[in-house]
Amino acid sequence: MPFTYPFRYVPSPEVKEAASRLIARLDSDPEAAAPFAGGKMMGVLITDGGPLYAFSGLQAARR
User: Fold this and answer.
1) Integer Cα distance of 41 and 34 in angstroms
2) CA trace torsion 7, 25, 61, 45 (10° rounding)
3) pLDDT at residue 58 in the model
4) Which of 6, 26, 35, 41 qualifies as a cystine partner to 60, CB 3.0-4.6 A?
């Protein structure tokens, strides 16, 4: 299935699991979660080497 329109995309179970692990990791570490408290768009990409996590924008107002 080509990825042409992200709002009609249904994430695979692997992506859902990786996203859940990311959320749990941020929720369990207040220091890691603090820069994202104002809200960020997070992304998960499953690669051959495992999940790749990314976010949009600045972290704690830094590049």
Assistant:
1) 15
2) -40
3) 67
4) 35
Q: pLDDT tens across 17-27, in order?
A: 999 998 898 88
| Angstrom distance (rounded) from CA 50 to CA 61 | 28
Q: Which residues of the chain have pLDDT under 50?
A: none
Backbone φ/ψ region at 28: left (φ over 0), alpha (ψ -120 to 50), beta: alpha
Exposure of 43 in the CB half-sphere (CA atoms within 13 A): 8
Residue 59: helix, strand or coil by DSSP?
strand
The predicted model scores a pTM of 0.70
- Tell me, what amino acid is at 10? V
